Amino acid sequence: MRGVERIAACSHEAAALGVVCGQPTAEVTGLNIPGMAVFAHDAEADREALAQWAERCERFSPLVGVDDAPEPDSLLLDVTGTARLFHGKAAQGERSPAHRSWFRDGEAALVEEAVDLFARRRLRVRAAVADTPAGACAVAHFHAAFLVQRSPVLLIPPGETPAALRRLPIESLRLPERTTNLLHELGIDLLGQLAALRREELSSRFGPELLRRWDRATGVRPEPIGAVRPRPEFAAAWEPEPPARRRETIEAALEGVLARLAGDLLAAGRGAIRIECRFDCLPDDRRGDRAGVRLGGNGSAPEPQAETSAGLSFRRFTLGLFRPTVDVRHLLGLLQLKLEQEPLAGPVAGMEVSALETGPLVQRQMALFAGVPGGRHDPPGGDAVAELLERLSSRLGRQTVVSVVLLPDAQPERAWRGEPLIGGPRRKRAGKARAVELPPRPLLVFPRPVALRAMPAVHVHGGGSTSSGEPPARPLGCVHFDGEEHRVVGSWGPERIETGWWRGRPIARDYYHVETAAGRRLWLFGRLDTGRWFAHGTFD
Amino acid sequence: MNHLAAKTLRIEQLQAQIARIEDAPSRGNITPLSSGCPPLDALMPHGGFLPGTLVEWLAEGAGTGPATLAALAARQAVSNGRALVVVDRRGRFYPPAAVRLGIDPQRLILVRAATQADQFWAVDQSLRCRGVGAVLAWPRRLDAHTFRRWQLAAEEGGVLGLLIRPAAARKEPSWAEVRLWIEPLPSGAEARRRLRLHLLRCHGPNAGRTLEVEIDDETYSVSPASQLADPTAPRRAARA
């Protein structure tokens, strides 16, 4: 049936009360269960949340990915070799007989810590360790240990993944629905039954996809995990336990993290050009006392818009630097500015600072030479200005703080462009500005020319005359503009500005520099096509 | 030494003392910058504007010329390799005109502040920066607190702050070292525009003086108007 809202997912508690996935929502809400809440399903939000958790899980593995289902619900971690870095409770005496070698202990500890990480955000997960990503994914979704015994963790011993898979239903391979239905019609419900059939037969009857999936699950065919994001080369993190609330604590920790990052960078002879700082915030349970976790920020600061999802929110800041730096105090200052603009939403459970882009660290200019134009990356005015630019750009935005690039374009609006001074592709700046041989230009120009309500009774003959239509003649008379009436008493021009038809919206204007009776100087133009008049700027 | 001579000497000593007090002690060895407007320089006690101070240009309405004069002063202030920060909130500043006026675009930093708070902050930060030569901004409203902060910031950074404000600001208190009111005059259809500058506020004996200048829009050279300023113009108080 179309058009009926159905339950996409439900909690264990709801399932215990008889809620079934796929059931029409109305039936469930009709039950009137106290404390029950129904939310609209948002696949995109789920995907984003999963990607965030993937990043959070990077502490367990350098390679974290998300499964390839149309609506993914699993995180894939490559724990090969990272397990032995973990020593949980299992290694400290509470040794369970199932895990004998130190290697298994490490895996158990890692998984335990991972489950705990989610549990702290009140999220229930199933964690399975197997020889292949697809195998682990299948086990986590369909193994009896999860579905029947409700265990949070299952470790499949090395080499036993194919055996474990045999007891799982064919759905665990995530085949196309058509293939799954066909298999069921033939009485094949478990992967074990599938494994008993001849490979050639499987391929010819069900297509190559089935065998490919099976081989990936069993490890015959290797399957790479597509990392959610490449690991930055330089990064440092901090995870307080319990989550930090006090601004001083967070700032001190941030400084420590930056110092570690800077140390690594310095050792490699590199400086950061772009830095990402990620705060992992818990939901604020003390609503009345938000100021406690606000870094900087005053009472009127806007409510932060964090990327929120099940019990956590990520806050991400990116800093662009004018040139490679390892200056901890400077970076801290810039991040503090960011935090003042967008205060954190709740206690900080973790932070990570990574250098997304680095450059070779050049010897910093001595202050003595500040102001002497030097290398091509030097801003006007030296280091002090570089720091100013970084501060301005961090708080006001990259696009707000620009350098001026003059363009050889006849149309006044297009005769220049602002280019962000921070970040962006580093390009050799144009050399000495070419001398501009233009008639006078006003220092203030309206972003859009202002149409003049009534233009001048104009009589005196115009400047040049063209064959195309009637050019507006020299402006004289009264101009209504800026809420006032100005009488034009003198005019200089015209300066004809035309652009080619190939420009999409070509212009043809006669510009005049006029003086009003009060001595004000305006920049007006008449359109050659319509004869209408506009004010374009003021000689302020 | 007769009585009169002693009195004259004493007055001269006191005048020198006043001049010393009026110049904040930190400004001992600061070289003044030309305002880019020689007739105005002639009236300034130091022969120009002092880096580390604010200058206010007041004018009523559009097209009256304060930006041109301020930009000329800015050009002088950045001629030593320092940067010029233009904080433009209304998106009207037209850089090609500034370049034509002789400002090196490589020294120009344009801050397109979106709000008044951003504008205030950007001006404050830029005034504090030692690598900046001048800051040009158009603050319409300026509360006394912010004004004072800017003045201190300019002093800290040794930056010349050029503020273009509506004429109504005349009634407001000022933390600027120099306050000028610009009045356009009809040029009589001459290409050179004429402006009357009222020196509302400055140190020295010339506060309250008025001068008329002519600006050539081709070369941006400023010269005294052909006719001398009216010596009978009413004197204004040095301090508002």
How does this model look, in words?
The complex is a heterodimer of chains A (540) and B (240). Chain A is α+β, with helices and mostly antiparallel strands. Chain A folds into three domains: 43-218, no CATH class; 234-362, Dna Ligase, domain 1 (2-Layer Sandwich); 444-538, no CATH class. Helix content of chain A is 27%, strand content 22%. Chain A contains 14 helices and 17 strands. Chain A has helices at 12-16, 25-30, 43-56, 102-120, 133-142, 144-147, 161-166, 177-185, 191-196, 199-206, 208-218, 247-267, 328-341, 383-396, and strands spanning 64-66, 75-77, 127-129, 153-155, 234-238, 270-281, 307-309, 312-325, 348-360, 401-406, 416-420, 444-451, 477-481, 484-498, 508-516, 521-527, 533-538. In chain A, the strands form five sheets. Chain A has a six-stranded antiparallel β-sheet with strand order 12-17-16-15-14-13, with no helix packed on it. In chain A, helix 5 (133-142) packs across helix 11 (208-218) and helix 10 (199-206) packs across helix 11 (208-218). The longest helix of chain A is centred in the middle third of the chain and has 21 residues, at 247-267. Chain B is of the alpha/beta class and 240 residues long. Chain B has one domain (33-224): P-loop containing nucleotide triphosphate hydrolases (Rossmann fold, 3-Layer(aba) Sandwich). The longest helix of chain B has 20 residues, at 3-22. Chain B is globular and about 65 Å long. The interface between A and B is large, with 61 and 63 residues. Strand 10 (401-406) of chain A pairs antiparallel with strand 3 (108-111) of chain B.
Structural descriptors:
heterodimer; A: 540 residues; alpha+beta; Dna Ligase, domain 1; 3 domains; six-stranded antiparallel β-sheet; five-stranded antiparallel β-sheet; 14 helices; 17 strands; elongated; B: 240 residues; alpha/beta; Rossmann fold; nine-stranded mixed β-sheet; 6 helices; 9 strands; 28% helix; 22% strand; globular; disordered C terminus
